[in-house]
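Question (not urgent): is this output format expected?
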Amino acid sequence: MEATLHVWKEGGIMQWESTQPSIEITCFAPTILTPMTGRIRVNDGKKTLQLESMRMLFLRPGDSVTLVRDGAELPAVCRICFESYRLAQHDDDTIMYRNDRSGLPASGWITNKLPYRATVLVNELVRLQANPSGHTAKAERHHHLFKELMQLVLHYETTPELDWEPSIHRAITYIDENYRSPITRSELARLAGFHTSYFSTMFAKKLGWGYSEYLNRVRIDRAKEHLLASTMTINEIALEVGYSNGEYLSRKFKQLTGMSPGEFRSRPASKKIAAFQFAGVLLALGVTPVATDAELVRGSLLLQEELRDVPIIKGAYDDEQLGKLKPDLILAPTYFYHTPGRMKQLEKIAPVLALEWAKLDPLAEMQLIGKLIGRESEAQRWLTKYQAQVDEARQSLRALIDRGETAAVYEWRSDGIFIWDKTARGAFNLYEALGIRPPETVRRDVLVPGKHLWITEDRLPDYMADHMFVIDARDDQSDEGEHVLASMHGKGRVYRLSLNEFWSSGGLALERQLRIQTNCLIAGESE
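Got this back:
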């Protein structure tokens, strides 16, 4: 029995006349918009979003927007209205679902580019149309296709690109970096450049959390880390995470977790951990997760054997299936806050540790998680093992390193190129472990600020290295655009990597990525 149902209400291709520059719509139900062809701009009176094919925009009831043609091509825009229901009662006599939109994204949420399958599903759904009075087989096929589409749209990638206004993004970044200090709503509103009441409304609309709820959750999550990884007193932890005293921390902690800080700290060491990130770290610590999700498995091919028999939970939303597995701890990334319904559902099942992903270097992350789950000695043993492998690899690459040759990691996407800092895509192995130099431009613009850098293809020559590890993350991975790789081959050695092997770089995955990268460099030396 499904815990959540998404039910199609109506949908189809919007009629757009050749002389019509725009269309105004008001949403009376949760709505998905996607251009099947062409591009559009979506304006809600305060901002404008760009929308193209293979991406979908989510709007909540009450939203009114104007769709504007972007270019000469007449766009074919599909509009899908639906409702979400949650299982409220299930016994021998009654099965009851109630309307529940809490698991849906915030309004204005835009997916990353989806696979071609999403377009196929939309086309087929529009062709069939929902018709309860029509042929039973047709209606059933429509239901199954829509269910697949919603699964794909909501859960295809766990890091959806929320199209926050820069002001909201600044406010969130400010909270994440300054939660230890007093932060007021008016202070954030001034930072964002808005009146306080308008800022509060916009913050909740864009992120899905109220300002106070988001701030408290950030503080409580950091308090959990201190409780499990230190011997600090409750008062000391309160001051460290931004509360005035331990009593206030305890009250907020219990409101959000259902237990006191002392009860959380004294819980037995977790044995059944569900991982919605950090699987590679758990495996390195000798812990096989009791559950994970499809996105993590898809991006962790190097851990395929270890995760083969681990139950897959559908995007962390299938709380019924997860509940049956009875985890005693859930590891989740803080980007789950972008879809708050998901985090709330997880918290109903077991205590959640929401950790920042790809923020710490992999060794610090290993030590932290080792402390949090009571496996510090296992963490130290893995670190010793990893260092031995690094020493062996450095010896094999001694000539390359001594010559001062450079290396960098690039992710080639349909809309440009990402250059990764040391926290992601195995870059730590190159810069920190092996000690290979980055190009000066990468050091200056990526490693020093500690932020991944997006560039257009025309800027790539400024960031090329002697050894370039390229992850092809384009949607179609066709031959079109191969001139980019050709230009790189003309400047240095190019090694193509799989995104599904390098998506996550923690623990056991980092160890195996080191082997792949070392073998690439050794092969490059012999050419």
